[in-house]
Amino acid sequence: MNQEHLPPTGVIGWLRVADRYLDVILQAIIALIMFVLGVMVFVIVILRYGFSYSIFGMHEMLPILFAHATAIGAALAVSHREHICVPFIFDLVPEKWTRYIDILNFFLLAIINAAIFWQSIAWIKKTGFFLMPSLRVPQIWAKSCIPVVTGFSILFCVIRILLVVFGDEKPTRFSAKKS
């Protein structure tokens, strides 16, 4: 029987399932946002250049959706191990140490995201309730992507650390070493 179709066992099994579902949900959200962005841009171009007409607030909504898509993409990069790292370091050390460097890497990434999360909350408290000029909604709608997605990034870092420590997940960023 295929391993993927077996029910999860233990905390690590459930953690892997939760990780997979969260990943799929975020990918679906980013796909939906990208679809909406594409439709909006198409409609704006047709209306603007075909009929010399513009829908009020559409130009303000585009960068907000783009910012949310970019932020979700950053969290997904952490989930897929596609964040910024230095693979050269993994090549320098013996393979048995790569696990510890991987844990350190995700720990530092979680700290950076926690700092961004903390700073973004303070930023939103100061500026989040000003109204956007054309949409006339609080800016918190646009700025909320930062704490939400840094929270997801922290969650993915914790999941990766737990899977490396307890689930035998290995970093794939280092090249195959010659024996």
Question: How does this model look, in words?
Answer:
This protein is mainly alpha-helical and 179 residues long. It has one domain (9-166). Helices cover 70% and strands 0% of the residues. The protein has 6 helices and no strands. The protein has helices at residues 10-51, 58-79, 87-92, 98-127, 140-143, 145-166. The protein is elongated, with a radius of gyration of 21 Å. The mean pLDDT is 84.
List the helices and strands and how they pair.
Blueprint: H1 10-51, H2 58-79, H3 87-92, H4 98-127, H5 140-143, H6 145-166
Helix pairs in contact: 1-2, 1-6, 2-6, 4-6
Distance between the amino and carboxyl termini: 34 Å
Average of per-residue pLDDT values = 84
Q: What percent of the residues sit in helical stretches (DSSP H or I)?
A: over 70%
Using the alpha-carbon principal axes, give the shape: elongated
Rg, Å, rounded: 21 Å
Largest sheet: none
How many helix segments? 6
How many domains comprise the coordinates?
A: 1
Task: Based on the model shown, name its key terms.
179 residues; mainly alpha
Write a concise synopsis of the structure shown:
This protein is mainly α and 179 residues long.
